[in-house]
Amino acid sequence: MDAIAQTPVVDLTDETLTKLAQNPVIITAFPFIGTMIARANAVRTVGRCGHPCGRGARRRTTSFNGMRRAIAELPMPQKAKLKTLLNTHQVIVRYTQANGRTQKLRF
User: Fold this and answer.
1) What are phi and psi of 62, to 5 degrees?
2) Could you tell me the sign of the dihedral formed by the alpha carbons of 46, 56, 40, 105, in that order?
3) Which of 20, 27, 36, 88 could form a disulfide with 67 if both were Cys (CB 3.0 to 4.6 A apart)?
């Protein structure tokens, strides 16, 4: 049987995290992802008037940023498990720190 080829790099964008939340294996291993995605998706991005609301978009971005920060702060054994589940050689996590600086982490 042929081995499945690994993806060289997976960048954890908002879309990637949303797709991860749909995978029951990932949710079982990392339950906080499902909880945080549910919170991010519950944020209204359209105002009561029907027009896009900047406040909702900022809250959604903050939710996804918190999720990426939580992944970046995982211990190495859990990061290795995530890499195995994603079938990749390397994961890139970009998030904003409390001081406003953007941090890029590769593991």
Assistant:
1) -65, -40
2) positive
3) 36
Give how far the C-alpha of residue 89 lies from the chain's centroid of Cα atoms, to the nearest Å.
17
**Structural domain for 90, as ranges:** 7-106
| Residue 1 in domain | no
Antiparallel, parallel or unpaired: β 102-106 and 88-96: antiparallel
Query: What pLDDT, in 10s, does the model give residues 32-70?
Result: 888 887 777 666 666 666 666 666 677 778 888 988 999
Distance CA 41, CA 84 (A): 27
How much is the pLDDT for 1?
Answer: 44
81 in a domain, yes or no?
A: yes
Q: What does the pLDDT read at residue 46?
A: 64
- List all residues 6 or more positions away from 44 whose beta carbon is below 8 Å from its beta carbon: 53, 56
Residue with tokens 């900022």: 58
